[in-house]
């Protein structure tokens, strides 16, 4: 209800004005009561929401624990883990919603009540006081006797002054009333609208989250029907087996143990025996014995490492022991020691003695036939045994992106707040983040931080390598170098979001804690990087392509016999190492004569060797800058120095005008590192920026034969149609260099581009063969670069 008090009416101080004032005061009093009640209800709702979030978080933790307990069932583990992560996201969205409710309803309305209504009450007190004074002055003026002139003058003066004061205060009071009525509407609607927008965002986020989860849920729903059918079938089979076994006669079960040298698990025989200890008390202990790999071993528990009793049964004998008090005993005697054992029955003793004897005989027979000891597989109960009786280690396979990234020192906790077990990452910074910090990083914009999930998103191998090259410890040494010096407090898990957000903005946007190098330090750093020799990593991704092998002197298109050699159809096949190669025809060495084979033939004129990498020479620059540091660090393949240069404000597309206008990305190509190029591209490097010769990064990678980099640049949108000042495109250069891999990639990319254009402007799928081959090259460049460091001939005359 909008109640406006007229300014003209208030000066009259009429009964209508007084009635309006009384109505307004009652309305304001009721408004204050309603607002106080709404704020209290909001506080109760927020407290209940926090309690709900706490209980929900415990429930999600229970799901995670159940998933961890179900590691043997990959479907249950992966599904529960994804469900738990999605529910945790919803908890975070709830937290944001309650924070918005506190800001928009509780804080904003409380401020309105405390500030605006307090001013109204103070104005009301002054109005009431001056009204009483005016009433008293009027009465005194009316009672002044006519014959007493001085009393009349005094009463008149008091009345005049009081009326003047009343007009001033009543106008201020009416102004306060009208302002309050106007502001009341905006404040209430603004707080409620903010709260409703928070709900809108909450439900949008939840919808997007579960839209991503919906395909998995549908897939599991489709699998559940089959799982129910399979479970019923398995139940019937197990009940039938249970019934069959229950009907068997177990009264004479001792005969079930038999020696089997050809057992699939490599264990000839196993079972429980009592073993006499070699201590002074000669105690007897029940242990699980087995004969495997020509050895007699035992273990106390399943997880214990097997203890070898006899390393080579060929050197042993076995015999009955009737001269001791216990029954069913036998002894295995070796040249260095003897072992006394006891079976549970006479039949079991005979079975074990026969098993040892057969194992000895088999070992001698295999020694004579093959000249080597038995090397059989072990069962899961004992593990594989080497000559020392220790279990052999099995290589780990299938490590997830999460496991690889968290294994980097410092990555097990959030880079910004220290929350353990982070599940998110900033791919251009190379750090791991918790859910709250990842949301703050998203709000900074992709020019500062690109956030990706370690569990929900797929990771390309070069990006995974980038994450493993940097890490929280390296980045914090750069971006928090002066934090302690400046006395800044680093956030802790559980700190309010606004505090964490302020810290992250100061750290990455303002770069407040970065230590700026002096001119001398910067000069020494640049000189050190420029003189640094190329480091060869354990992988061979940085090696230049091998020169082409010598070929015999043959006419083009003919072999040694004079027969025409027809090139294989242009295409792609899977080689023995699993890579995809362009089919190329080379003459057979079997057709060469001895004279031809002895004399190395020159290279054909149509297949010149590739140009060697231009030697990088350092010249004293006119000015040292962070851009120059990034430039040389890219060539030296030093990611920490590159990250430091960017933190100091280096332009990622910095141009070295003193060196053919080359950029850090082109220098990264010269350095030969795939990971360095990926780091620059993730930090917004222009893949098509050209040097003074008109050559971009794709040109340089093609000239140097860096197949992995060519594959990376094509995926990142490099223009393969760009020509340098000599009118040469990357494809022209690759054909001249006879690099079959790069020709394959460039032609496939061109073909895929043409197919997409033919399908229409909205087509995004592309050719599946193109995607498969590029994925193969990506995996090969990151995981097995040796396979790409082969020089392949490509026949430019072949269609």
Short description:
The chain has helices spanning 7-12, 15-69, 74-143, 149-246, 346-370, 401-406, 435-444, 461-469, 472-479, 483-486, 497-509, 519-531, 594-598, 626-636, 639-647, 664-671, 674-682, 697-704, 707-715, 730-737, 740-759, 768-783; strands spanning 267-276, 284-292, 295-299, 307-310, 317-321, 329-333, 338-342, 424-426, 431-433, 451-453, 572-574, 580-582. It is of the alpha+beta class and 799 residues long. The relative contact order is 0.05.
Task: Write the SSE topology.
Blueprint: H1 7-12, H2 15-69, H3 74-143, H4 149-246, E1 267-276, E2 284-292, E3 295-299, E4 307-310, E5 317-321, E6 329-333, E7 338-342, H5 346-370, H6 401-406, E8 424-426, E9 431-433, H7 435-444, E10 451-453, H8 461-469, H9 472-479, H10 483-486, H11 497-509, H12 519-531, E11 572-574, E12 580-582, H13 594-598, H14 626-636, H15 639-647, H16 664-671, H17 674-682, H18 697-704, H19 707-715, H20 730-737, H21 740-759, H22 768-783
Antiparallel strand pairs: 1-2, 1-7, 2-3, 3-4, 5-6, 6-7, 8-9, 8-10, 11-12
């Amino acid at each position: 209800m909008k109640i406006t008090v007229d300014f003209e009416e208030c000066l009259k101080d009429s009964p209508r004005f007084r009635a309006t004032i009384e109505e307004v005061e009652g309305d304001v009093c009721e408004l204050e009561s309603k607002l106080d009640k709404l704020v209290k209800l909001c506080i109760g709702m927020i407290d209940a929401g926090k309690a709900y979030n706490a209980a929900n978080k415990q429930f999600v933790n229970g799901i995670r624990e159940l998933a961890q307990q179900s590691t043997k069932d990959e479907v249950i583990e992966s599904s529960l883990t994804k469900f738990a992560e999605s529910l945790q996201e919803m908890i975070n969205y709830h937290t944001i919603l309650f924070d918005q409710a506190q800001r928009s309803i509780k804080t904003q309305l409380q401020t309105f009540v405390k500030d605006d209504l307090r001013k109204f009450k103070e104005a009301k007190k002054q109005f009431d006081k001056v009204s009483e004074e005016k009433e008293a002055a009027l009465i005194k003026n009316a009672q002044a006797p006519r014959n007493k002139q001085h009393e009349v003058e005094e009463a008149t003066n008091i009345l005049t002054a009081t009326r003047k004061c009343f007009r001033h205060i009543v106008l201020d009071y009416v102004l306060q009333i009208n302002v309050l009525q106007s502001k009341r509407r905006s404040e209430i609607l603004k707080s409620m609208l903010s709260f409703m927008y928070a709900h809108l965002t909450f439900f949008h986020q939840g919808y997007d989250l579960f839209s991503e989860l919906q395909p998995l849920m549908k897939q599991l729903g489709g699998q559940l029907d089959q799982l129910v059918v399979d479970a019923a079938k398995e139940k019937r089979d197990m009940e039938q087996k249970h019934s069959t076994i229950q009907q068997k006669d177990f009264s004479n079960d001792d005969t079930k143990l038999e020696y089997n040298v050809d057992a699939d698990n490599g264990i000839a025989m196993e079972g429980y025996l009592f073993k006499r200890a070699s201590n002074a008390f000669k105690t007897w202990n029940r242990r699980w014995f087995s004969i495997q790999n020509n050895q007699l071993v035992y273990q106390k528990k399943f997880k214990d490492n097997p203890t070898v009793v006899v390393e080579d049964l060929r050197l042993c004998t076995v015999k009955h022991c009737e001269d001791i008090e216990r029954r069913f005993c036998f002894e295995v005697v070796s040249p260095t020691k003897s072992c006394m054992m006891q079976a549970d029955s006479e039949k079991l003793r005979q079975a074990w003695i026969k098993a040892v004897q057969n194992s000895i005989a088999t070992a001698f027979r295999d020694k004579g036939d093959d000249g080597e000891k038995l090397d059989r597989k072990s069962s899961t109960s004992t593990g594989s045994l080497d000559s020392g009786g220790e279990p052999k280690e099995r290589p780990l396979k299938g490590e997830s992106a999460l496991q690889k990234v968290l294994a980097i020192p410092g990555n097990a906790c959030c880079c910004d707040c220290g929350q353990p077990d982070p599940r998110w990452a900033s791919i251009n910074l190379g750090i791991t983040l918790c859910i709250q910090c990842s949301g703050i990083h998203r709000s900074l914009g992709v020019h500062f931080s690109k956030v990706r999930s370690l569990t929900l998103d797929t990771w390309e191998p070069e990006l995974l390598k980038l994450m493993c090259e940097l890490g929280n410890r390296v980045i914090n040494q750069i971006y928090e170098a002066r934090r302690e010096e400046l006395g800044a407090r680093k956030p802790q898990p559980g700190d309010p979001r606004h505090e964490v957000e302020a810290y992250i903005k100061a750290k990455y946007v303002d770069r407040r804690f970065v230590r700026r190098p002096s001119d001398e330090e910067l000069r020494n750093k640049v000189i050190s990087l420029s003189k640094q020799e190329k480091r060869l990593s354990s992988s061979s991704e940085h090696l230049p392509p091998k020169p082409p092998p010598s070929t015999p002197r043959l006419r083009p298109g003919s072999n040694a016999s004079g027969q025409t050699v027809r090139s294989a159809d242009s295409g792609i096949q899977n080689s023995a190492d699993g890579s995809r190669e362009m089919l190329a025809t080379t003459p057979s060495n079997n057709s060469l004569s001895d004279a031809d084979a002895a004399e190395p033939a020159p290279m054909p004129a149509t297949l010149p060797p590739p140009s060697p990498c231009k030697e990088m020479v350092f010249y004293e620059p006119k000015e040292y800058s962070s851009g120059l540091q990034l430039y040389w660090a890219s060539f030296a393949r030093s990611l920490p120095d590159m990250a430091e240069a960017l933190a100091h404000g280096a332009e990622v597309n910095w141009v070295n005008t003193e060196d053919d206008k080359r950029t850090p990305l082109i220098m990264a190509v010269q350095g030969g590192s795939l990971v360095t190029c990926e780091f620059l591209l993730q930090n917004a490097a222009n893949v098509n920026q050209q040097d003074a010769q008109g050559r971009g990064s794709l040109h340089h990678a093609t000239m140097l034969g860096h197949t992995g980099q060519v594959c990376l640049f094509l995926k990142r949108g490099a223009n393969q149609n760009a020509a340098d000042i000599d009118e040469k495109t990357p494809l022209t250069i690759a054909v001249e260099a006879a690099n079959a891999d790069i020709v394959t990639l460039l032609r496939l990319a061109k073909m895929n581009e043409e197919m997409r254009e033919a399908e229409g402007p909205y087509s995004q799928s592309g050719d599946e063969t193109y995607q498969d081959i590029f994925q193969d090259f990506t995996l090969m460049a990151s995981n097995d670069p040796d396979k790409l460091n082969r020089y392949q001939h490509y026949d430019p005359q072949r269609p």
